[in-house]
Amino acid sequence: MKKIINKTDNLIKEMLEGIVDAYPNTFKRIEDYPRTLVYANSPVKDKVAIATGGGSGHLPLFLGYIGKNLIDGASVGEVFSSPSANEMLAVTKAIDSGKGVLYLYGNYGGDIMNFDMAAEMAEDEGIKVLKSIGADDVASAPKEKKEDRRGIAGIMFGYKIAGAAAAKGAPLEEVKKVTDAALENVRTMGVALSPCTIPAVGKPTFEIAEDEMEIGMGIHGERGIKREKLKTADEIAEFMTERIIDDLPYVKGDEVAVLVNGLGATAQQELYVTFRKVNEILKAKGIKTYKAFIGEYATSMEMKGLSVSLFKLNDEFKELLDIPVEAPMLLQQF
Fold first, then answer.
1. 94: containing domain
2. CB atoms within 10 A of CB 91
3. pTM for the full model?
4. What is the DSSP string of 142-196?
């Protein structure tokens, strides 16, 4: 796989330098911690701060959600590798205004371990930290073991709700409560048509034939629930949407936000074709689409494929979802 990079060892450093150079009014670096970014106005006075992080390779996920009324800081590791506890601690100290910090991250072993360590170190320095974990991937574990599910693209709804609640002045415990409630109402499933290549490894994360698709794969190339011959967009959308709906379940009269997320190499037209069918299914079941998000919100390098997420709404979630944000890396509506 050809990539437009310099040395693989410098990829993340140079990526972060480019982001700061492009948007100097939004981002700033933390001295001595080159794999961290924080909101340029941090710490924001009298506001709970939101921190996130994870492996690189998922832009705009993590770094791209830093901005006004969103996330205050993030640390990233190498491609598909967790950031260190010291990096997360540095972010925590840089964004804390004295109101505490909510860690919001995906359900992966390395992230859990390092975020837990960072939280302990922050507490030792007098910073209160609470944690919320995204685990929205219905394909990665059965419903009765949903605590084992991976966090994938649906975590973006958690960012939006947490950031909005904090911007309204909610205390740390309330920000966590509403964020956890939102995450409980998000379900996601994805499909991959091609693998991606980690630059330092130099070979695809998995192999798949040109006429095949992997349903339910993870964003690091984790195996899905089954591999089949490539189906039509409508067939793919129906398979995933029906399983997502059944899992919560979503029922007649519900209102939802819909995310159709491209994984890095999927044409926009394919995302809208998919959304068309998802929306048709929802209408047939009496479920109203309140707002739709179509584009790249959580990628996997240059993987071709997409995921569908549903977020069941109530009045509070709708109010928070509608609060405007300023995040220049999010090119789509948000």
1. 8-184
2. 30
3. 0.96
4. -GGGGGGPPP-TTHHHHHHHHHHHHHTT--HHHHHHHHHHHHHTEEEEEEESS--
Distance CA(183)–CA(102), nearest Å, equals 14
In a domain, 326, yes or no: no
Active-site residues, by number, are 58, 220
Contact (CB, 8 A) for 170 and 48: yes
Q: By C-alpha distance, which of 83, 143, 74, 139 is closest to 108? A: 83
Look at the chain and report how many structural domains it folds into.
Answer: 2
Rounded distance between C-alpha atoms, residue 244 and residue 238, angstroms: 10
Same domain? 179 vs 216 = no
**What is the block-wise mean pLDDT of the chain (334 residues), using blocks of 10 residues?**
90 96 96 96 97 97 96 96 97 98 97 98 98 97 94 97 98 98 98 91 88 93 90 98 97 98 97 98 98 96 96 98 94 66
Residue 333: per-residue pLDDT: 62
Amino acid identity at 138: V
Is 25 within 8 Å of 166 (Cβ atoms)? no
Closest by alpha carbon to 291, among 313, 261, 258, 247?
258
